[in-house]
């Protein structure tokens, strides 16, 4: 569900960037990027099997 | 580089993002390979790459618009690097099929790194940030307008396909069926 919301939010930011205010688009973009990072951290739980 | 040339380049970059999103759809529907959660995140970050160029076309090129795309590209590179590392051990077949010897997440990593290099290179041309007095076509002209709407339409299509795939719950780690079509 979170990915559907992120796609929807990205599409909305695109529409705001194209038709709305620049500052609003910048702010919404920041919010989407933070949400993407949070989603990444939520899913990146498997330990990487690496040896150096 | 003049403002007009920079806007044309930004429109072309939107076609590149559209091509990536269409290639992802091709793998999903022709090969019937459903994207995993990390794959979806990489798609979202490819779509987020397009927001900077859209702002550049509408408001004129600005360093802050390029910076937005750079941030999205770095986040995308981190996500795709993690997926590469998850499947890096010998004997690991990787996730999904390979295209020209590389899996899609490896291509995504190459794409995000290429985006970082290209954006940084374009930002070297300072003249695009000065008002050169040229009369620019409203909202970038037809080439740019088609590019913007194409990227928006593809992102909106991803809203629908992701909802069909994941439903209203959490997406499966290795999805094989569309949750909403079961």
UniProtKB/TrEMBL annotation, chain B:
The keyword GTP-binding does not apply. It is found in: Membrane. It holds the Pfam family DsbB. One of its GO terms (cellular component) is membrane. Its main location: membrane. GO terms for biological process: protein folding. Keywords: Membrane, Transmembrane, Transmembrane helix. It is a multi-pass membrane protein. GO terms for molecular function: protein-disulfide reductase activity. It comes from the Bacteria. Signal peptide: none annotated. The chain crosses the membrane at residues 12-31, 43-59, 66-85, 105-125, 146-164. This is Disulfide bond formation protein B. It comes from Bradyrhizobium lablabi.
């Amino acid at each position: 569900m979170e990915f559907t919301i992120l796609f929807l939010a990205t599409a909305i930011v695109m529409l705001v960037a194209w038709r709305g205010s620049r500052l609003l688009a910048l702010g919404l973009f920041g919010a989407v990027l933070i949400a993407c990072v949070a989603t990444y951290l939520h899913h990146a739980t498997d330990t990487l099997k690496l040896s150096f | 580089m003049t403002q007009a040339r920079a806007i044309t380049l930004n429109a072309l970059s939107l076609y590149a993002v559209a091509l990536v999103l269409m290639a992802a759809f091709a793998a999903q529907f022709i090969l019937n390979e459903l994207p995993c959660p990390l794959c979806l995140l990489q798609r979202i970050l490819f779509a987020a790459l397009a927001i900077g160029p859209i702002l550049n076309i509408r408001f004129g090129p600005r360093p802050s618009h390029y910076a937005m795309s750079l941030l999205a590209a770095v986040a995308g590179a981190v996500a795709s690097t993690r997926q590469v590392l998850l499947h890096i051990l010998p004997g690991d077949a990787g996730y999904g099929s390979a295209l020209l010897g590389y899996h899609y997440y490896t291509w995504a990593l190459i794409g995000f790194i290429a985006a970082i290099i290209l954006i940084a290179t374009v930002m070297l041309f300072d003249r695009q940030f000065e008002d050169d007095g040229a009369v620019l076509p409203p909202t970038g002209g037809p080439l740019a307008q088609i590019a913007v709407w194409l990227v928006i339409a593809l992102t909106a299509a991803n809203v629908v396909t992701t909802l069909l795939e994941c439903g209203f719950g959490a997406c499966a780690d290795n999805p094989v069926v569309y949750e909403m079509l079961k």
